[in-house]
Write a structure and sequence with these properties.
This protein is mostly helical and 419 residues long. 49% of the residues lie in helices and 10% in strands. A hairpin with a 2-residue loop joins β6 and β7. The longest helix has 26 residues. The structure holds protoporphyrin IX containing FE. GO terms for molecular function: heme binding; iron ion binding; monooxygenase activity; oxidoreductase activity, acting on paired donors, with incorporation or reduction of molecular oxygen.
């Protein structure tokens, strides 16, 4: 049982609180894979980890990932050429492999080449571990899962997937410990290329209370980035592509902005200044995350009895803050189902907590800047190379607010080569 909350004032009270930081029971289903990394931990452990990880998301560090966005983005564009001219393409699985490649390289510093090898054991295991906890959360047996799970086929599938994932992360960590990267620009590999900095390198040098992190601590955080930093951005990019295909006038404005930035050299390398100049694209991404928030709800638990506006709520009550519902409420967003990026310019949102795609307060998304850079970089490349058109026959999304917002029948569009 959970209390579903859509009132922005109540959301503000909960999200701003430094006491209501424990997650709802649904997050427990991710513990076997993620342990108690930043997303799933609470109390002192979470506070110390958050403090330790915050500098890793500083702009000066994120700049290092521009090369990753560029390299993987180019491979993705090559892959998309194969889809040109088809009347209907489900872009979600393709985008998802692209964002998996990006987060893997950013967090571990290695390439798994998911775009061209989407059926590898590692990629399959990530996909399974993003799905099995969701199946468990939404199964009517959810409260009894600790007892029922061990006798279901999912238990054995999950055990195998987790073994693959943990062994993979451990191998990469061991390799990096043996061959550390000096976090200086001078560090070159054997062929003289600049070595790529990864979040893992920062974790290897980080300390908490003066002590370095254990291998297990590091694995928890790397795996958390792999989970939280992959399906979230892929959903957003795929829904943005769908929205641009369905709203050609808006797509034209995005294209004009891209032309004003890149001119004739439409495939030149993107810089951080270019990303900052993509103001209209940023509005498009904001509007995409309003209508299609990648994380449609977040769960919390009351740490003690709480009284709010005359009602007493008991300790340990599970809360579901329903971002999807609030962001589609006409009281805060007139004509809520209309895709209108300009609303972020001219509408005063009555309560900022009515728009919280990255959550808010102390447990907001630590990766939001990284995500914004990745989304801008990728969508910019797509729009410069392809005209996005509605699928034939017309595609009606079947949205389902699972742990990540999904469309049950895919996200279908059609692609044309842009001259
Ligand atoms: C469009 C992309 C993204 C969206 C919409 C998004 C959204 C969110 C939301 C709503 C939360 C709060 C979850 C909760 O309270 O249960 C969250 C937390 C988190 N996100 Fe993101 N996220 C995105 C991308 C990323 C990326 C790329 C990373 C990593 C590189 C990341 C890492 C995290 C982590 C580690 C947390 C837990 C923070 C904490 O509890 O202190 N996210 N995200």
């Amino acid at each position: 049982m959970a209390l579903v909350i859509t009132d922005p004032k109540f959301m503000e009270y909960i999200l701003s609180s430094t006491k209501i930081i424990s997650k709802a029971f649904q997050y427990d289903f991710f513990h076997e894979w993620l342990g108690t990394g930043l997303l799933t931990s609470t109390g002192i452990k979470w506070r110390k980890r958050r403090k330790m990880l915050t500098p890793s998301f500083h702009f000066s560090i994120l700049e290092n990932f521009m090369d990753v966005f560029e390299k993987v983005g180019d491979i993705f564009i090559e892959r998309l050429w194969e889809e040109v001219g088809k009347p209907s393409v489900d872009i979600y699985p393709l985008v998802s492999l692209c964002t998996l490649d990006i987060i893997c390289e950013a967090s571990m510093g290695i390439s798994i080449n998911a775009i061209n090898d989407g059926d590898s054991e590692y990629v399959r295991s990530v996909k399974q571990m993003c799905q099995i906890p969701v199946d468990r959360t939404f199964d009517f047996t959810a409260p009894f899962q600790p007892w029922i799970h061990p006798i279901t086929p999912n238990y054995f599938k999950q055990k195998r997937a987790i073994k693959v994932l943990h062994e993979h992360t451990d191998r990469v960590i061991d390799e990096r410990i043996k061959n550390p990267i000096n976090i200086s620009d001078e560090d070159k590999d054997s062929v003289g290329m600049k070595k790529r900095l990864a979040f893992l390198d920062l974790l290897l040098t980080a300390t908490i209370d003066g002590k370095p992190l254990s291998r297990m601590d590091i694995r928890e955080e790397v795996d958390t980035f792999m989970f939280e930093g992959h399906d979230t951005t892929s959903a957003a990019i795929a829904f943005a592509m769908f929205s641009l295909a369905e709203n050609r006038g808006i797509q034209q404005k995005v294209l004009e902005e891209q032309i004003s930035i890149f001119g004739e050299k439409k495939n030149r390398k993107t810089t951080t200044t270019d990303l900052q100049d993509m103001k209209y694209l940023e509005l498009v991404i904001k509007e995409t995350l309003r209508l299609y928030p990648s994380v449609p709800w977040v769960g919390r638990k009351f740490p003690e009895d709480i009284e709010w506006e005359g009602t007493l709520y008991p300790k340990d009550m599970n809360l579901m803050l329903y971002i999807f519902g609030t962001q589609r409420d006409a009281r805060y967003f007139p004509e809520p189902l209309k895709f209108r990026p300009e609303r972020f310019l001219d509408t005063e949102i009555p309560n900022p907590f009515a728009y919280v795609p990255f959550s808010a307060g102390p447990r907001n998304c630590i990766g939001q800047r990284f995500a914004m850079m990745e989304m801008k970089s990728t969508i910019s490349k797509i729009v410069r190379n392809f005209e996005l058109l509605p699928a034939t026959p017309k595609h009606e999304l079947q949205l389902a607010p699972e742990v990540i917002l999904v469309s049950k029948n895919g996200i279908r569009i059609s692609l044309n080569r842009r001259k």
